[in-house]
Structure to design on (465 residues):
């Protein structure tokens, strides 16, 4: 039999649970003595700003709209805003996050007289289109992540290295041109690309 | 706190349309196990005796008048309102529902940030959580009494000031993400990431061996025999099969892909 480390189960056992057969102390000392929650407790969600790529998967998953994405297309910013006052601790953001940036912490001491104290903002810069210079709809870190996921052979085979630097409209234009050159499009290809959407909700 | 120097707070508990999760936690907080009477916190039967109002729930239209009447029946001082739960703090999961009372129409960010008890009453303490654990409620009440300081402060990060490091894993990222998705079918999300971490460690070790397939099988069997939790045992076996399926699948598809591009 191979000897394997089973770290997950060990981590659960390491937390000292009260032994109900022996009995528990009658009154907890809590506000006077600090306390801790068990490892599976779902507390305030926290975004690790060093790992978050700003993809917004958590925003889409959040059923209570505690997480929102705020776009500033003029300055090329996308912020992921977490509002734990709305959060219902369902953990769907943690489930959706592809990088493991979103984690429900064990933090439970959230009470505050001012709700703004709870808000957490992670701001991301959007990439600029190599062709038209407008901001694209993805962040710089998202591009890096995409290259980590895609196998190198596929990136080379499709020349994705350059395509990833374009905004959606320019990419469509390029594709239309290629298809038209191959004779796979009927009609005037230059009529197809729509105008760029400018500005946005701040 | 503006209303400091409180010694003993008598509370009245009112429900403004909650799902009863928070009410049960409030009830729990009042039991001798958490014993708030140490600090003079006592549940009273009428708002006329109460210093503080513990409001739970998202403030439905049906409950609004009742809650307002309770508030008016309280003595004019100190009239503290504590919003218990995410619903009371800002509408929670129900914030967009048709029966939720809103003092005015709000759109965009305002709509997303507002809701709950603050639409009707001035709130002195927000205790978010769904439901907040009895300790969390005690923490809020302890703040009212000056026993504890508030811990939270707003957090702001920008990607230019934080150092970005993509996490590296022992197996390819695309396979990790696919495994993570398919593992959803067999185990809950909380255990999922940890089981996957264990598996990736094993897979990384196996990939370094001469014959990865056999080595991985031996390691997974070792895990299977050592682990007592049957869910984890099953997940491990599932992951092993899925891992090789994805790998072989990719090899086949990739070969086909390259061939079409060469043509
Ligand atoms: S735990 Fe649920 S409600 Fe809270 S931020 Fe995550 S997805 Fe939204
Ligand atoms: S899903 Fe994860 S990586 Fe994406 S924006 Fe949310 S926290 Fe960041
Ligand atoms: S915060 Fe959660 S537990 Fe409390 S009333 Fe709302 S839905 Fe129920």
């Amino acid at each position: 039999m191979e000897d394997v480390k089973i770290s997950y189960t060990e981590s659960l056992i390491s937390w000292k649970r009260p032994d109900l057969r022996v009995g528990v102390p009658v009154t907890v000392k809590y506000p006077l003595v600090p306390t801790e929650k068990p490892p599976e407790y779902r507390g305030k969600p926290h975004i690790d700003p060093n790992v978050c790529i700003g993809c917004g998967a958590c925003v889409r998953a959040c059923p209570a709209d505690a997480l929102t994405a705020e776009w500033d297309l003029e300055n090329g910013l996308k912020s992921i805003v977490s509002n734990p006052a709305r959060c219902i601790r369902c953990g769907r953001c943690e489930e959706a996050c592809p990088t493991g940036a979103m984690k429900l912490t064990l933090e439970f001491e959230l009470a505050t007289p001012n709700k703004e104290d709870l808000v957490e903002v992670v701001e991301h810069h959007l990439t600029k289109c190599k062709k038209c210079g407008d901001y694209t709809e993805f962040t710089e870190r998202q591009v890096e992540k995409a290259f980590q996921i895609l196998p190198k052979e596929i990136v080379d085979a499709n020349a994705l290295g350059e395509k990833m630097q374009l905004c959606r409209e320019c990419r469509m234009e390029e594709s239309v041109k290629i298809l038209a050159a191959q004779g796979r499009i009927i009609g005037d290809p230059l009529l197809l690309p729509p105008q760029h959407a400018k500005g946005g909700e701040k | 706190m503006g209303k400091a120097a409180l010694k003993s707070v008598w509370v009245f508990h009112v429900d403004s349309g909650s799902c009863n999760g928070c009410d049960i936690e409030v009830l729990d907080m009042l039991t001798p196990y958490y014993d708030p009477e140490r600090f003079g916190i006592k549940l009273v039967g009428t708002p006329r005796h109460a210093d503080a109002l513990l409001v739970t729930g998202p403030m439905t239209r049906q409950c609004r008048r009742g809650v307002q009447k309770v508030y008016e029946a309280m003595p004019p001082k100190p009239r503290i309102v504590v919003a218990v739960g995410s619903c009371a703090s800002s509408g929670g999961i129900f914030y967009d529902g048709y029966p939720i009372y809103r003092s005015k129409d709000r759109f965009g960010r305002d709509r997303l940030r507002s809701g709950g008890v603050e639409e009707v009453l001035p709130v002195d303490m927000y205790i978010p959580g769904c439901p907040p654990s009895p300790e969390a409620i005690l923490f809020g009440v302890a703040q009212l009494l000056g026993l504890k300081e508030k811990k939270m402060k707003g957090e702001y990060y920008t990607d230019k000031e934080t150092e970005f490091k993509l996490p590296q894993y022992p197996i390819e990222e695309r396979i990790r993400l696919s495994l993570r998705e398919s593992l959803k079918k067999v185990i809950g999300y909380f255990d999922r990431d940890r089981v996957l971490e264990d598996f990736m460690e094993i897979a990384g070790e196996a990939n370094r061996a001469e014959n990865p397939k056999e080595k991985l099988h031996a390691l997974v069997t070792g895990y299977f025999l050592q682990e007592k939790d049957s869910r984890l045992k099953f997940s491990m076996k599932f992951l092993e099969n899925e891992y090789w399926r994805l790998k072989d699948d990719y090899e086949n598809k990739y070969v086909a892909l390259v061939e079409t591009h060469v043509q």
